[in-house]
Amino acid sequence: MPQAAGFAWNQLHAGSNAVTVTYFGDGAVNIGSVLETFNLAAAWRLPLCFFIENNHYAVSTNVDESTAEPRLSARGLGFNIPSWRVDGMDPLAVHLAMTEALDHMRTGGGPTIIEADLYRYFHQNGPYPGSAFGYRTKAEEQAWRDRDPIDLLRRHVERRGLASASDIDAFRDEIVAVLHEIGGSFLTPDRRAILESAWPDPAFVDVGIRGDLSELDGSRYEEADGFSGELAERRFIDVVSDTLARRLESDSRVVVLGEDVHRLKGGTNGATKASVERSPDRVLGTPISENAFTGLAAGMAIDGRRRPVVEFMYADFMWVAADQLFNQVAKARHMFGGHGGVPLVLRSKLAAGTGYGSQHSMDPAGVLTTAPGLRVVAPSNPFDYVGLLNTAVALDDPVVVLEHVDLYGTKGTAPVSDFDYRLPVGKAALRRAGDDVTVISYLSMVGHCLEALDQTGVSADLIDLRWLDWASLDWDTIERSVRKTNRVLIVEQGAVGTSYGGRLADQIQHRLFDWLDAPVARVTGGEASPSISKVLERAAIARTEEVVAALRSL
Predict the structure, then answer these.
(1) Tens of pLDDT, residues 271-303
(2) DSSP string across 8-39
(3) I need a surface site. Which of 250, 269, 502, 525 has the fewest CB within 10 A?
(4) What is the edge-to-edge ordering of all strands in the sheet holding 83-87?
């Protein structure tokens, strides 16, 4: 349902009279994202029809058991959505309701709900009726069979003289013959199995997880050393704002959406300030419903006419939208065989150390990188932020851009007016060179690592990963460094339980065991998520002091 809202948004803003219809059953009506999407579609007056097929059973649970209001279309009234309840076994009744709903949507009235009261003859899956599993009676099934919609439509046609009984029999025979012909192309003669030649090649198992990056052909890549434009010391958050605004100005397909992004002079941190000033019609403030607006953005992206940039106020809110982010956005390209991209960017800040407590403080990198379809970037300075965000917006793969709130107020070398360069996918940065140990980090912890190296005098290679997902990891830089230093320290701030470094350490030890003189060492936060207490919050996360201690131990 949330993705359908994204298609409908694109249709509305393309100036067409097209509408989207999303079909779902009585069971799905109780999913939170459905109700969130009711609200979002109504608030934005999207041309979206929610078509509820009320077949009375979600698997084996009767609708009367799962809700106190069995008239499922009645829920629309609470969102000011016009709703129809019709006999779903009567094709003419459904046609009439849909015709009225289309008139409402195409004249700018916003979304509609149609509840069709109908019946699923068989169990949710497989060839057996529900009575075979004991949750329905044969008499109930027969009563609904007696009202079969195809038979009813046939009687309507005959009564109106649109075709004779012999004409309809001939139509039916022709249809059955065509279906058998189609089935014969991939089924065995007894129609009990699929022909061996029709099975997919097992080698296709990982095809289409992500694109081939050909959309980046012709990119202008720049690093701070040798940058062709003007550079100055600038605040990180101001560079975020300017880069987002530039993407909106240069590409009419880009849309920014999220909670409060259109107010507060650029959202809660000012990231959308310049965007609101320059392209206010494409900065969309959403309800507090992460599942709905993440799915809506997915629909925008899959439809292909928009390239949405979604802002999550805190990284922890990803888990509210986990169904859309992990089950839909990350898997969509592979589910459709690699055909068509999902050009969606999700920006989110990490806020450990700000006193906002456990639900606002996690580092999600370790969990995000378990989803093969997501690319993940983590800029540690404003210059890199420009190049990484630009590449993320240009990609046809979904990208999560992590931003640390500690960096927002800091200053660093950044462009003054050129916000169009990119950084290549899968390229880490060597921030310092040395011989004693390879230190690997990302985001704000890169700065803490530099401070720790200065305090200890340890000679180290410091690798700023920049790209964190496993498909984009710069193994060339990591391997070259480890073969030189023979020791590794992985540094991250967040809790050990959701650690990114755990899997990275495992991979390094598998790939580079012969070049290691000691086990891979790690700096992480504690087991618990940071709490609101300043003392306990500081104890739960890693900063410069923890890196210093680890270096001295090595």
Answers:
(1) 999 999 999 999 999 999 999 999 999 999 999
(2) HHHHHHTT----EEEEEETTGGGSHHHHHHHH
(3) 250
(4) 20-25, 48-54, 112-117, 83-87
User: Which residue, chain included where needed, has tokens 């917006």?
Assistant: 393
Angle between helices 544-553 and 445-456 (to 10 degrees): 50
| CA dist., res. 141 & res. 153, Å (int) | 20
Distance CA 110, CA 122 (A): 35
Alpha carbons 265 and 245: distance in angstroms, whole number: 13
Which of 53, 259, 290, 537 does the annotation list as catalytic? Answer: 290
Three-class SS state of 249: helix
Predicted confidence at residue 138, as pLDDT, reads 96
Tell me, what DSSP letter sits at residue 324? I
Q: What pairs with residue 440 in β-bridges?
A: 463, 490
How far is the C-alpha of 307 from the C-alpha of 253, rounded, in Å?
5
Residue 377 confidence (pLDDT): 98
Q: Is the dihedral of CA 406, 407, 408, 409 positive or negative?
A: positive
Q: How far lies 216's CA from each of 121, 199, 316, 397, 399, in Å? A: 50, 34, 31, 11, 14
CA angle 205, 375, 320 (to 5 degrees): 100
CA distance 26 to 63: 7
Of 281, 282, 285, 265, the closest CA to residue 273 belongs to: 265
Coil/strand/helix, residue 78: helix
Is 262 marked active-site?
no
The low-confidence residues of the chain, meaning pLDDT below 70, are: none
User: Which SS3 state, helix, strand or coil, does residue 394 take?
Assistant: helix
C-alpha–C-alpha distance, residues 334 and 372, integer Å: 10
Structure tokens at 307: 């390239």
Q: CA–CA separation, 33 vs 424, rounded Å? A: 36
Helix extents (H) in 107-217: 138-145, 149-159, 165-184
Active-site residue among 56, 123, 360, 404? Answer: 360
Specify whether the CB–CB gap between 158 and 168 falls below 8 A: yes
d(CA 369, CA 506): 14
- Are β-strands 411-415 and 231-235 bridged in parallel, bridged antiparallel, or unpaired? antiparallel
Yes or no: say if 291 and 324 are a contact pair by the CB < 8 Å rule: yes
CB atoms within 10 A of CB 205: 9
Active-site residue, 290 included: yes
Would you tell me how many other CB atoms lie within 10 Å of the CB of residue 53? 18
Residue whose tokens read 């097992």 = 202
Q: Are 494 and 524 in contact (CB under 8 A)?
A: yes
Say whether 439 sits in a helix, a strand or coil.
Answer: strand
For residue 87, the 8-state DSSP code is E
